[in-house]
Amino acid sequence: MKQQLELLNNWYNSLSLRDRNLFISTIVILSITLFYLIVWEPLHQGRDLQQQKLKSQQDIYSWMQSASSEAMSLKGAGIKKAPSNQPISLILENSAKISGLKQYINKIESSGKNGARVKIDSASFDQLLVWLNTLEQQHGVTITTANIERNDEMGTVSARLSFEKL
Predict the structure, then answer these.
(1) SS3 label, residue 91
(2) What angle do CA 96, 100, 103 make, to 5 degrees?
(3) What is the mean pLDDT of residues 21-49?
(4) Of 129, 80, 81, which is closest to residue 101 (Cα–Cα)?
(5) DSSP H helical segments within the chain, as ranges?
(6) Pair 100, 108: CB distance under 8 Å
(7) Are 121 and 106 within 8 A, CB to CB?
(8) 8 A C-beta contact, residue 138 and residue 119
(9) Longest distance between any two alpha carbons in the chain, whole Å
(10) Which residues, other chains included, contact 158 with Cβ-Cβ below 8 Å and sequence gap of 6+?
(11) Average pLDDT, integer, range 33-55
């Protein structure tokens, strides 16, 4: 290592003054360029990226704040239809037909004046949830008990449900 430094020093000393200045200038320019490319530019790009992420998160947060207040106001003003005077079993059957679940219903049986039990096989889970929401929101029929089991076929369930009309 010492020999290499001596060789380098001898080589440098053998250069003319003009060549020495050119060599030093080149080293300085290379050092500045490398510093810019390796340190300065990545830091600034990272900072800019983090500022963009922060702005995006702030926008999402403000949207969530406004959506939250809107959801709270809408929650209190839920639209409910007045319950009909039809028997609950008829309400269940008609609404199941409209929602496309009638073919999956094995049995609807009354239980008391305002109650009913339903057995459903291999129905779409999403369809079942929409039907249950419709029953509550539009007909005033609530679920008192529910036993829902996943089937082997993806997205389908079998269910035993008990309902009560308010």
Answers:
(1) helix
(2) 80
(3) 94
(4) 129
(5) 2-14, 17-35, 41-76, 88-99, 125-139
(6) no
(7) yes
(8) no
(9) 112
(10) 120, 121, 122, 123, 148, 149, 151
(11) 94
Distance CA 162, CA 109 (A): 10
141/22 Cα distance (integer angstroms): 90
Bridge partners, residue 91, by sequence: none
CA angle centred on 157, ends 153 and 159, rounded to 5°:
155
pLDDT per residue as tens digits for the range 70-94: 777 776 665 455 556 788 988 999 9
pTM score? 0.51
List, in order, residues 6 or more apart from 144 with CB less than 8 Å away: 115, 162, 163, 164
CB atoms within 10 A of CB 70: 10
Using DSSP, state whether 124 is helix, strand or coil.
Answer: strand
Across the beta sheet with 156-165, the strand order is: 105-110, 115-124, 156-165, 141-150
